């Protein structure tokens, strides 16, 4: 073989070896970089979880302070209700958080009594709430049918016979719900409707009453059948700067029939205190951000303990 041919083959072989080596080096580098980023991301998320847990401890301390007196009202003018942050907890990690009183909302699970019957006063309140939010009151029987335990649709409602005929078919929950987002499973109940209704509703145990001190304006109007506070957020806030508003006695006097107040109080558990709270947090680190959600419950007079029922952290 001529000398020039041997040189050409050697050069080609060297180029092939170099290409293979470069490809392997690049792949190794990429895998190493990815592994480093994964490790860093995992460490960052773990740090965010720890900060969220520390925020829970702060929230628990503020709630215990507000609930220490079993006869005192719990309301949004107290320290627990003030947003916290943004503040740099540790170098590079900034946290923001707030507590929401979940009993300042209409508890959807209270639409059905413990023996499985519709709670008519709660239904009427939901229908009025929907109207105050410019939503169709016809959603009330559909929501009740989603929660009640039977398979017989209410007038205007929907049960398995309706949902099983959809594509794809499915069945209603027919039990108490754990998240208000289950409403999105109702046929035709879209995200726009849910976003409008969500700040005014909760999904809590049936015995969780409605705290008037923190009830939203449209919900207060749903109780009285008037349109006083819907769309008057700033005015309602001014009335609440000094403490609980409206008090139970104020609501009683605003209703023409005292018996109506007592019926509402029994059906919805009207009160001036709360046990269930949502802690919403956000931790940012560089370009990364993590949201956290914690469901907190006060264990009641004498216990003095705030228990974390649910915790979730996600990028």
Which homologous superfamily in CATH is the superfamily of the largest domain? Answer: EpsJ-like
- Classification by helices and strands: alpha/beta
Overall, the morphology is globular
Helix content: 40-55%
CATH architecture grouping of the largest domain: Orthogonal Bundle
- The fraction of residues in strands falls at 15-25%
What does this structure look like?
The protein is an alpha/beta fold and 315 residues long. It has 9 helices and 9 strands. The strands form 3 sheets. A 5-stranded antiparallel sheet has the order 1-2-7-8-9, with helices on one face. The N and C termini lie far apart (64 Å). Residues 36-40 have low confidence and may be disordered.
How is this fold's topology laid out?
Layout: H1 3-67, E1 84-90, E2 93-101, E3 106-107, H2 120-132, H3 139-147, H4 160-163, H5 191-197, E4 201-202, E5 210-211, H6 217-224, H7 233-239, H8 248-254, H9 258-268, E6 270-271, E7 276-285, E8 288-298, E9 306-314
């Amino acid at each position: 073989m001529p000398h020039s041919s041997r040189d050409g083959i050697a050069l080609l072989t060297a180029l092939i070896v170099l290409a293979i080596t470069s490809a392997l080096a690049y792949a190794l580098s990429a895998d190493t970089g990815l592994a480093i980023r994964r490790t860093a991301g995992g460490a960052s998320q773990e740090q965010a979880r720890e900060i969220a847990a520390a925020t829970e401890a702060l929230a628990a301390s503020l709630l215990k302070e507000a609930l220490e007196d079993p006869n005192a009202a719990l309301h949004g003018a107290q320290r627990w209700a003030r947003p916290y942050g943004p503040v740099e907890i540790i170098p590079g990690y900034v946290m923001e958080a707030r507590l929401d009183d979940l009993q300042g909302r209409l508890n959807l699970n209270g639409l059905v009594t413990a023996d499985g019957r519709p709670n008519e006063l709660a239904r009427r309140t939901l229908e009025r709430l929907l109207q105050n939010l410019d939503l169709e009151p016809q959603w009330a029987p559909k929501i009740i049918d989603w929660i009640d335990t039977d398979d017989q649709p209410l007038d205007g409602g929907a049960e398995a016979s309706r949902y099983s005929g959809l594509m794809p078919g499915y069945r209603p929950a027919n039990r108490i719900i754990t998240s208000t987002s289950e409403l999105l499973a109702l046929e035709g109940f879209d995200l726009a409707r849910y976003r409008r209704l969500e700040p005014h509703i909760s999904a809590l145990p049936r015995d969780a009453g409605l705290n008037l001190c923190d009830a939203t304006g449209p919900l207060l109007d749903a109780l009285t059948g008037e349109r006083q506070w819907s769309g008057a957020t700033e005015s309602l806030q001014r009335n609440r700067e000094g403490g609980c508003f409206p008090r139970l006695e104020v609501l009683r006097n605003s209703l023409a029939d005292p018996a109506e107040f007592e019926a509402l109080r029994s059906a919805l558990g009207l009160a001036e205190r709360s046990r269930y709270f949502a802690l919403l947090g956000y931790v940012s680190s560089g370009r990364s951000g993590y949201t956290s959600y914690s469901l907190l419950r006060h264990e009641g007079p004498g216990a003095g303990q705030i228990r974390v029922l649910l915790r979730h952290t996600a990028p």
